[in-house]
Amino acid sequence: MSASSDGVGLRQRTRDAVRQQIAELALVIFDEQGFDETTVDQIAAAACISPRSFFRYFASKEDVVLGDPMLYGEPVRQRLAQSLESMPIWQALRAGFEAVVETIEADPERALRATRVMISTPSLRARNTEKHLAWMTVLVPLVAAALNCPEEERQYHARAITLCALTCLDVSSAELVHRNGAVTSRVLLDEAFRLLKPTTLVD
Predict the structure, then answer these.
(1) Is 77:143 a contact under the CB 8 Å cutoff?
(2) Contact criterion met (CB below 8 Å) for 87 and 143
(3) Domain 3-59, what fold?
(4) Which residues form the DNA-binding region (predicted)?
(5) Of 162, 164, 163, 186, nearest to 175 (Cα)?
(6) Domain spanning 66-196 has what CATH number?
(7) How many helices and strands in the chain, by DSSP H and E?
(8) Which of 30, 95, 124, 165 is least surrounded by CB atoms within 10 angstroms?
(9) What CA–CA distance (Å, rounded) separates 161 from 202?
(10) In whole angstroms, how far apart are CA 191 and each of 99, 169, 174, 178?
(11) Which residues of 36-60 are buried (b: 16+ CB within 10 A; e: fewer)?
(12) Which residues, at least 6 apart from 8, have a Cβ–Cβ distance to it below 8 Å?
């Protein structure tokens, strides 16, 4: 590795660390006083940076909570593609969402706080729906290719099944907040998948 490339890597790691610190501070403030009630100026003051510096790391307040929709969507897609090689579709979708569960379990307190902020804020709930629509564009083709049904029905069935799986993720996330983290996200997601398991097409 050249000295210049190592320098670029160090700068990026430093930037990522600062971005993470700002996000952690912002989530605490959002959780304590409300997302809509919190200003960028307040976040910047808590992080000892200028408001202009905040926007060097985040395009908006919403990005602090949800960020790039494919940051987690791509790992889900990869897990789903691998799982479809050996599992029925519904099980493979659950295996795909294991990428999300692992992220939650890596820092459950942060995940609980971020989810609590998200479900209590209408604009963030709308942004979360947009995230799922972005995920649909990469997950539905994989599900459609695995279905054994007439071609004219395949896309519709794939969208319905994938959206049901995303609903399991949503409802289990909300339940995680409702129970204040007393039950793990994995247990809640497994239960939701059992409750919504389709009886046809995907066994």
Answers:
(1) no
(2) no
(3) Arc Repressor Mutant, subunit A (1.10.10)
(4) 39-58
(5) 186
(6) 1.10.357.10
(7) 11, 0
(8) 95
(9) 9
(10) 17, 11, 13, 15
(11) eebebeebbeebebeeeebeebbee
(12) none
Residue 180 structure tokens: 């204040």
State the Cα–Cα distance between residues 29 and 37, nearest whole angstrom: 10
For the whole model, what pTM was predicted? 0.85
Q: How far apart are CA 169 and CA 104, in angstroms?
A: 12
Tens of pLDDT, residue by residue, the chain (203 residues): 555 556 567 777 888 888 889 999 999 999 999 999 999 999 999 999 999 999 999 999 999 998 877 888 899 999 999 999 999 999 999 999 999 999 999 999 999 999 999 999 999 999 999 989 999 999 999 999 999 888 889 999 999 999 999 999 999 999 999 999 999 999 999 999 999 887 665 54
Are 77 and 96 in contact, with CB atoms under 8 Å apart?
A: yes
Which pair of structure tokens corresponds to residue 91?
């099980």
Region at 121 (left for phi over 0; alpha for psi -120 to 50; beta for the rest)? beta
C-alpha neighbours within 13 Å on the C-beta side of residue 19:
17
Neighbouring C-beta atoms of residue 14, cutoff 10 Å: 10
Structural domain boundaries in the chain: 3-59, 66-196
Distance between CA atoms of 197 and 171, rounded to whole angstroms?
Answer: 14
Are the beta carbons of 115 and 177 closer than 8 angstroms?
yes
